[in-house]
Design goal:
This protein has 278 residues and is α/β, with parallel strands linked by helices. The protein has nine helices and eight strands. It has one domain (3-274): TIM Barrel (Alpha-Beta Barrel). It is globular and about 50 Å long. Helix 5 (145-153) runs parallel beside helix 6 and helix 6 (176-186) runs parallel beside helix 7. An eight-stranded parallel sheet has the order 1-2-3-4-5-6-7-8.
Length: 278
């Protein structure tokens, strides 16, 4: 079975633009990460392709990722960024329809006030996506889930995927409010979930595989195997683990599922959600 990584990033490090990568604690990702850095890892693990997701909120970022996807066929799709509050948002989205590698969009809501999820202009922009066959990646922290539920409910026809299982507080083991919000999101059949980005929500130095079990269990119980997909969040994940460690952790958990369920999780669901070419 060949896997697809539904969530990874590329960047050419820029100290001013990438100020979120704080010196010291994030020192090992304050450098360039490009396809030639990732491909040997994918080949070693039997991962046939990836979805490259925006990390900077600019159209330049979207175009940069699309250029990489054009040069490297194993980059199956790009989740880009566009200003959803722009007056000409529909025209901008229509421009991107001609590039089949652009499968969806994301806004970094985790860094915004929750009021943005109720902003009229923002909602109008998001509403344009489904009619143009795009998807939306929902990036929030666990404490933003309540606002996200109201937000998502307004777009029943838009394929939405929750990044990083909603970024629960794994380090301190707080699970109840996260679990309640996840249950409400999972009731919406258009919402999928990426099992990704979890190691950086745990203790970076001292996490153990058992730390993730309650969150794995809840996620798969609520969303089912058919609406979950594997993601690495490389290279951000390297703050707390290697790519290989995270992949092995997920594989160990998934061993309890049937071969067909594992294929759905590691491959088919990502294909179906993003609708990219084989």
């Amino acid at each position: 079975m060949m896997a697809i990584d539904s969530h990874q990033h590329f960047w050419k490090f820029n100290q001013e633009r990438d100020s979120w990568m704080t010196p010291g604690i994030m020192e090992n990702i304050r450098r360039d990460f490009l396809p030639d850095d990732l491909k040997p890892i994918l080949d070693q693990l039997g991962i046939e392709g990836t979805i490259a997701v925006q990390a900077d909120q600019s159209r330049e970022e979207t175009d940069f990722l699309l250029e990489l996807a054009s040069d490297y066929p194993w980059i199956k799709g790009v989740v880009g960024w566009v200003d959803f509050r722009s007056p000409d948002i529909r025209e901008q989205l229509q421009e991107y329809r001609s590039d089949h590698k652009l499968v969806g969009f994301r806004h970094i809501l985790q860094s915004e006030a929750v009021s943005l999820m109720a902003d009229t202009d923002f909602l109008y922009g998001i509403d344009q996506l489904a009619g143009l066959n795009f998807t939306y990646d929902l990036l929030i922290y666990w404490h933003q889930l309540e606002a996200a539920i109201d937000f998502v409910a307004q777009f029943p026809d838009l394929p939405i995927v929750l990044d990083h299982v909603g970024k629960p507080d794994i380090k301190d083991g707080r699970i109840l409010k996260w679990s309640k919000g996840m249950a409400q999101l999972a009731e919406m059949p258009n919402v999928y979930c990426k099992v990704s980005g979890m190691v950086t929500e745990a203790h970076w130095l001292y996490w153990q595989e058992e730390d993730f079990l309650p969150y794995f269990d809840q996620t798969f119980e609520l969303f089912g195997v058919d609406r979950c997909m594997f993601g690495s969040d490389w290279p951000v994940c390297t703050l707390a683990s290697t790519y290989e460690q995270w992949f092995s952790t997920v594989q160990t958990y998934m061993a309890r599922f049937s071969d067909s369920e594992q294929k759905a999780f590691f491959n088919t669901n990502c294909h179906r959600f993003y609708g990219f070419d084989s």
